[in-house]
Specification:
By secondary structure, the chain is mostly helical. 60% of the residues lie in helices and 8% in strands. A 3-stranded antiparallel beta sheet has the order 1-2-3. It contains 7 helices and 3 strands, in the order αααααβββαα.
Length: 144
């Protein structure tokens, strides 16, 4: 994903998030796409298994032709976190030194707690390659 530069770009990303996720689901064409729509913790295991079988490295997912797959995966992870924490999507645009500058993140509604950056979790999963890692991290985030 290219970094978003303005609040307006972020708002547009939020506005188009459902459409982007629907395109992602059509691209995966697997019978598990209906199971993903539940946004349950167990849906993370399904997504994880698919990502690990499709990509050998995080770099493969970062190729331009895989942008929709990265975005859809990150949206799914973020929505699972958001729904289980009553959080909301946000973006850091003030501190360019922030590791997640320009990337959508999930924070608490009062913005006092940062939960995580779903894009980072997606690529970290492909780097670690440990079965159950994604769900374990999200369960930890939810319990904070």
């Amino acid at each position: 994903m290219n970094e978003l530069q303005t609040r307006e770009e972020f708002e547009q990303w939020l506005f188009s998030m459902d459409d982007s996720y629907d395109i992602f689901l059509k691209m995966v064409k697997e019978d598990f796409s209906e199971k993903l729509k539940s946004f349950t913790l167990s849906s993370l295991d399904i997504l994880e298994e698919w990502l690990l079988s499709k990509f050998s490295t995080p770099d493969e997912l970062l190729f331009k032709e895989n942008k929709t797959l990265l975005e859809g995966s990150a949206i799914h992870i973020g929505e699972v976190i958001r729904k289980h924490t009553s959080g909301k999507w946000d973006i850091e645009l003030k501190n360019e030194d922030d590791a997640y500058y320009g990337l959508p993140v999930v924070v608490s509604k009062d913005e006092k707690h940062f939960f995580d950056c779903p894009y980072s979790l997606t690529t970290s999963l492909l780097d670690r390659r440990e079965k159950g890692w994604l769900k374990g991290v999200v369960e930890y985030i939810i319990d904070i």
